[in-house]
Amino acid sequence: MSPRAAFAVLAIALLARPLEASEPVRVTTLVETTAVGPQRIFVARIDLRHPGVDLRVSGPVAPRPGDPKGTEARLESVTEFARRVGATLAINGNFYARLPGAPSHWTAGQPVALVGPSVSEGRVVSHANRKGLGHPALLVTRDRRAEIKCALEKDLAGKDDVVAGVSHSGTRGCLLLENGKNSGEKASPSLRARHPRTAAGLTRDRRELILVVVDGRRPGWSIGMTLSELGALMLRLGAHTAINLDGGGSSSFLYRPARGAEVTNRPSDGGWRPVANQLAVVLRAR
């Protein structure tokens, strides 16, 4: 094992330890060496028991004249959202879809439809399937009780914040990790390829939220991960359940602590892509 790989393994082992009571958020970066290139990983562990932790998901948008039918969100970068809500930590969330008449390139303020359910401070922004295969979703109540499951519309009741990935109807796959088992290879072939990645996971006791962004499409810096590799990483970090969120050029990680240096990933577009919604941590004064 190379020194760099050994360091990454040690760092993951240290990260998997329970958070101290005084640490609501702990962030670190890892570098893993593989036969095909490096993987740069940004990890945040959030103590959901901490009274100062407030999770935020982008809210519903006010309608504007000329909005296409089906508008559920307007594109905004993770950095702009974090500034607007005063977030300490923010990542990108749901996949999203272009609406009729939209420009061919994603632009800030562009109206889009969300893929999968989204809930912001108890308000449903995008609905889930009512029956059949659910959406891989992170669901959190106002008192920060969290779960990850294949969610249907009924599961949104009583939830304060929800973000979701996409299901894989051909294989009946939904979660990235399910009951401590890696389900990454169940995804459709187009989703199993190596890309920048964003994931959310919960420990077995569901008291810690683990958020991960992996850079990719940058040879020499980071090559990204397959879903199987992402699932294996989440297991090593101590997750028991996990979902794969929007990735590629959307993968964004921003950490702005009250003290110390800012930590950001390097999005594969070369800048911050405006995305449909975000998941953020705002630290309240106790």
Fraction in helix: 10-25%
Helix-strand pattern, N to C? Answer: HEEEEHEEEEEEEEEEHEEHEEEE
- Give the percentage of residues in beta strands: 25-35%
Total of helices: 4
Largest beta-sheet details:
5 strands, antiparallel
Q: Average pLDDT, to the nearest integer?
A: 91
Please state the structural category: mainly beta
Number of domains: 1
How many strands in all? 20
Parts with pLDDT < 50 across at least 5 consecutive residues: none
Q: What oligomeric state do these chains adopt?
A: single chain
Distance between the termini: 45 Å
Radius of gyration: 18 Å
- What is the molecular shape? globular
In what order do the strands lie side by side in the largest sheet?
Answer: 1-2-16-15-17
Write a brief caption for the model:
By secondary structure, the chain is mostly beta strands. The protein has one domain (3-283). The chain has 4 helices and 20 strands.
